[in-house]
Design brief:
Layout: H1 2-26, H2 30-33, H3 40-47, H4 62-66, H5 71-90, H6 96-116, H7 120-123, H8 138-149, H9 156-159, H10 173-180
């Protein structure tokens, strides 16, 4: 009897782990990320960027830049993304005008997270050690050399905002605070 219970528990655990893994991978696909109406505009921007088409033929998908690779941070990112889905369903960002109205705040939230993690997702593909600094313009070469030496407090996102998406227009401070306060609120499951 105990053996049957153990086998059942192992089977349930295996099924749960497999389902969780499959779900995490499916929600990392660009097709999933851009299935929401509000993501159509950023998808078009991405498709015109160097992260979509470039001389090396390497394409960065949504999850490459927006989802950490390690399991713990990945789960946190997935929970955080639920807020975006909630605002899509709620109608806060469900058309281009509404999306653009909130875009500055949303972009800054992403940039702040990237800054806080020292551009972790950027560095999963890009390393200063692998850069051909001779091929960079003088300004980029100088900045990347400082980063390589550890003598810079800059991280990728400090200089590369707008590499895959347009940089939104900064609203007036009063308008920004009044119109976006609700986006900073945690999602309530009540």
């Amino acid at each position: 009897m105990k053996l049957i219970a153990v086998l059942i528990l192992l089977g349930v655990g295996f099924a749960f782990a497999t389902a969780s893994s499959v779900t995490l991978e499916a929600t990392n696909e660009t097709e999933f990320c851009t299935s929401c109406h509000s993501m159509q505009w950023v998808k078009e921007e991405w498709m015109e960027s160097v992260h979509y088409a470039n001389v090396s033929g390497v394409r960065a998908n949504c999850s490459d830049c927006h989802v950490p690779h390690d399991t713990g941070p990945k789960l946190v990112a997935k929970l955080r993304a639920a807020k975006d889905v909630w605002h899509e369903i709620r109608g806060t960002i469900d058309n281009e005008e509404k999306f653009e109205h909130h875009r500055w705040q949303m972009a800054n939230a992403v940039w702040d997270r990237m800054k806080a993690t020292d551009s972790r997702e950027c560095k999963s593909c890009h390393t200063v050690a692998a850069m051909d600094l001779k091929e960079q313009d003088r300004s980029a070469r100088k900045k990347h050399k400082k980063i390589a030496k550890g003598s810079s407090n800059k991280t990728c996102i400090d200089c590369h905002k707008g590499v895959a998406h347009e940089i939104p227009e900064e609203p007036d401070e009063e308008e920004h605070t009044a119109n976006n306060a609700h986006l900073n609120q945690p999602i309530s499951i009540e």
